[in-house]
Design brief:
The complex is a heterodimer of chains A (about 290) and B (about 190). Chain A is an alpha+beta fold. Chain A has 7 helices and 8 strands. An 8-stranded antiparallel β-sheet of chain A has the order 5-4-7-8-1-2-3-6. In chain A, helix 3 packs across helix 4 and helix 5 packs antiparallel against helix 6. The radius of gyration of chain A is 36 Å and the shape is elongated. Chain B is about 75% helix and about 0% strand.
Chain lengths: ~290, ~190
């Protein structure tokens, strides 16, 4: 269960709902939703939220747009059906070509056997040619559809790689920012936070820049959280707690540094367990780690 | 069909429409248009802005929906969620390729965002869940985050950078906002 709860709070579901994930990411979320009813329920709720948001922006299209768009759409989606028609239409053409059309012409010539022979040969040739044309037309249409499909998937691929490229770039920037923080001992003071008597094994670090007020947190070891809870970091300034933000699930798991809220001045940092989203003031009984600068 | 909010349309009515679309019933497309076009056009227009391009994208979206009906999986979510996603993605592709053409990637994004923040809806359908309701329910900070993520096509990290906020804050705001909105149809 703990596993699912962490996943729910990781932000992946929001990314899914808001269309940020690529195909692999989407598949991952869907797999989780299939395994856990709790994840499914949470995801459905977020999707409904996005739906409400989208629908709230409904805009009646300008006059005339319905006829234009619907007309073109219906024409376009009718194409593959029209392409099949000539084939099925070919036999009926044969009937109409030989009956009402050819007969009046052929009738006066009936006395001459050779002429009627030529007429039959001509109409057979015409029918074959029509059928051939129909076949070629349908193949051409098919090729056209295939080409459009290929172009679509190529465009999709291009769009996906563009998005990925942007994502990697952001991730790389984050990593180099984290390295900068870790490698600047003069700018960032390292504050070790040790476990309180209730949690002797807990350990974390805060990197605090007194010049720029920036605060990063790095978790080494924190107890797992119950559902609906999050770790919150506090700066203690002259004995008064100041909110420094809540820890994302992956930060609490020690997966990466997290840039917290700016803190103007502090003599110590501490972490407590608060309801998801954080509290205005710390719940002191849940204090897990603390350390002086 | 009654004019319920699309996102909470009874599943039976939705399933009937899906079945007809899958059966290649073209009259179902007209019905689909009449029910969904305002919602889809609203999202598209919010992203691409220009009327003529919105019309293009809407058309493209409808054709794509028609042709991809086979791949729509009812177990993964509502029809509305699926079709609005297709429309949004096409609209975002459109502005990205526009930025590509102009060759001013980031500037394009910033421009369109600035425009977005000012853009006021021309008309909205009061029988649908209205913008006023959204504005009433969300604090401006939450609305701003959702706007960037949904209409701007930003990732959470990009939104954090754009708004100069910790990533955790962006995540929390997005999550809280979506939950508040979901309650509107419960």
């Amino acid at each position: 269960m703990e596993d699912f709860q962490n996943y729910i709070e990781s932000g992946r579901l929001e990314q899914y709902a808001l269309g940020e994930l690529n195909a692999a990411g989407q598949a991952e979320v869907e797999a989780w939703a299939q395994r856990s009813p709790a994840v499914r329920q949470e995801l459905d709720e977020l999707l409904a939220g996005v739906g409400v948001f989208a629908e709230a922006h409904a805009l009646t299209p300008p006059a005339g747009l319905r006829e234009r768009v619907l007309g073109r759409v219906l024409a376009e989606i009718a194409t593959p059906v029209a392409a099949e028609n000539p084939i099925t239409a070919a036999p009926t053409m044969r009937v109409s070509a030989s009956n009402p059309q050819n007969q009046p012409v052929a009738a006066p010539m009936a006395p001459t056997a050779s002429r009627s022979g030529w007429a039959i040969a001509a109409s057979v040739a015409l029918v074959l040619s029509l059928a051939g044309n129909a076949l070629l037309y349908s193949r051409w249409q098919q090729a056209n559809t295939d080409l459009v499909a290929a172009q679509n998937s190529q465009a999709q691929f291009a769009a996906t790689s563009q998005v990925n490229e942007r994502r990697y770039q952001t991730e790389t920037e984050q990593l180099s920012e984290q390295l900068h923080v870790l490698r600047s001992p003069n700018e960032f003071k390292l504050v070790a936070l040790a476990g309180t008597p209730a949690h002797p094994a807990a350990r974390a670090r805060v990197l605090f820049s007194q010049a720029t007020h920036r605060v990063y947190v790095d978790v080494q070891q924190l107890p797992a959280l119950p559902a609906g809870k999050q770790y919150q970091l506090w700066a203690l300034n002259n004995g008064k707690p100041v909110d420094a933000g809540v820890l994302a699930a992956n930060t609490a798991a020690g997966a990466s540094l997290q840039h917290m809220k700016d803190i103007a001045s502090a003599q110590a940092f501490a972490m407590t367990v608060e309801p998801t989203g954080g509290s205005a003031g710390p719940t002191l009984t849940t204090m897990t780690v603390i350390g002086n600068i | 069909m009654p004019d319920l909010p699309l996102i909470s349309t009874p599943t039976a009515a939705e399933a009937a429409l899906v079945t007809r679309l899958r059966a290649r019933d073209q009259s179902a497309m007209t019905e689909f248009y009449d029910r969904y076009s305002a919602a889809l056009y609203g999202v598209i227009h919010r992203i691409v802005k220009a009327d003529d391009e919105s019309e293009d994208v809407l058309q493209e979206a409808l054709v794509k929906i028609w042709h991809s009906m086979e791949s729509y999986d009812t177990t993964k979510g509502r029809l509305f969620t699926w079709v609005v996603n297709i429309s949004r993605n096409l609209a975002i592709d459109r502005i990205r390729s526009r930025q590509h053409r102009v060759g001013a990637k980031t500037q394009g994004i910033d421009d369109s965002l600035a425009a977005q923040r000012q853009a006021a809806p021309v008309t909205f359908r009061p029988e649908h869940l209205g913008l006023q309701e959204i504005t009433k329910q969300l604090v401006p900070e939450q609305r701003q985050v959702i706007d960037l993520l949904y209409f701007g096509g930003f990732t959470q990290s990009e939104a954090a950078e754009e708004l100069n906020l910790p990533l955790g804050t962006v995540k929390t705001r997005a999550r809280t906002a979506l939950k508040v909105l979901a309650k509107l149809i419960r």
